[in-house]
Amino acid sequence: MLIYLRLLKESFYFAVNALKNNKLRTFLSLLGVTIGIFSIIAVLAAVDSLEKEIKGNLSALDNSTMIVTRFSFGPTDIPQWKREQFPDVTYEEYEYLSRSVPNTEAMSYVLNVPQESIKYNDKTASNVGIGAVSAEYYDIEALQLEKGRFFNMSESASGTPVVVLGYDVYENLFGNADPLGEQVRLYGRRFTVIGVLEKKGASLFGSGHDSNAFVPVNVVRRIYGGSNRNTFPQVVIKPEDGIDNAEYIAYLSQQLRNIRGLKREEINNFFVNQLQGFTDFIDNITSQMNFFGLIISGFSLLVGGFGIANIMFVSVKERTNLIGIQKSLGAKNKFILFQFLFEAVILSVIGGLVGLFLVWVVSLLASQLTGTFEFVLSPWNMFIGTAVSAVIGLISGIVPAISASKLDPVEAIRTGM
């Protein structure tokens, strides 16, 4: 056992010395592997970071959350021309469903409306995202309040002009002053501030709720009209824990079909989108991005592998005389084999580590420049980069190493003379 360890140690030192003595060749060999590993790990890190950011933004909603709307969040067999004829979910339908569908923890009516400006005295908060929701939305998304309260069912139903500000909006308008009970102007009307949300920080999709403001949905319905298709109405539902989702969706769909008067042979003119299905769709997309990214990056790594193999063949040819002398002095074939294998693997691993370092630097710079997106270089991706580079070095160096180990000592010395 000690003999083999000593053999490996001496082979390792021979390989390191050979790399030191041929710095330019070593650099050129490293370059190909570095680019290849950089490409692969950069793709993996970018896709992982994107997936983490998207799911992080969806984490406030439970995976069991459902959204009823005329749009499908995933692929569907229904042609587009037919989907465009689907009616929006109305407020009356939401009220009917909230009364008639059991096993529901919370159900909210939501409108998507453009950003607005909110004014307080001489200060203005611009590009504020308006959350036009009914009161139950507070429980669905588990919103956290810094101060004050969210509007209640009565205020939501009557369309009382009250507003809950995101933290950044509150700071822009009030600084450190107490905003509760103060009036701000929105949609050309006065709204009373009743609450401020906790600060959450920036995300991929902007500043999140920090730059939003929530108002009762019926206030916005009066402004935009109850049948305005540009507001993309939807019903957001959080079922109770432990229920059978398929049965719940079937009952929910039947109730909506009943109120819409759909006949048995007619298809649903709405979609019940599950958040779980949306996250599965994201997983599918990211896996495809990984697959195609790896294929493209693999070509770069293949070029790097061929570069190492070529350099190793040149190295064997240059050191043929030395190999002959080593074998004539008693060096075994294994010693020569390990010597060149170590050289190839060391070249490749160093190139891989340099590639990983470059990915790390680029991820830091990208995170700093974007400000809202954090690139993550996970330990698993680092392990993959190191392992792949070692395997590439092993594969690239095996044929030159075998050819070197099988050289006849007399012929090798004669060739080198």
TrEMBL record:
Residues 295-409 form the ABC3 transporter permease C-terminal domain. The chain crosses the membrane at residues 27-47, 291-314, 335-362, 382-404. It comes from the Bacteria. Residues 26-252 form the MacB-like periplasmic core domain. Keywords: Cell membrane, Membrane, Transmembrane, Transmembrane helix. It is found in: Cell membrane. It is a multi-pass membrane protein. GO terms for cellular component: plasma membrane. GO terms for molecular function: transmembrane transporter activity. The keyword Transmembrane applies. Belongs to the ABC-4 integral membrane protein family. This is Putative ABC transport system permease protein. It comes from Salinimicrobium sediminis.
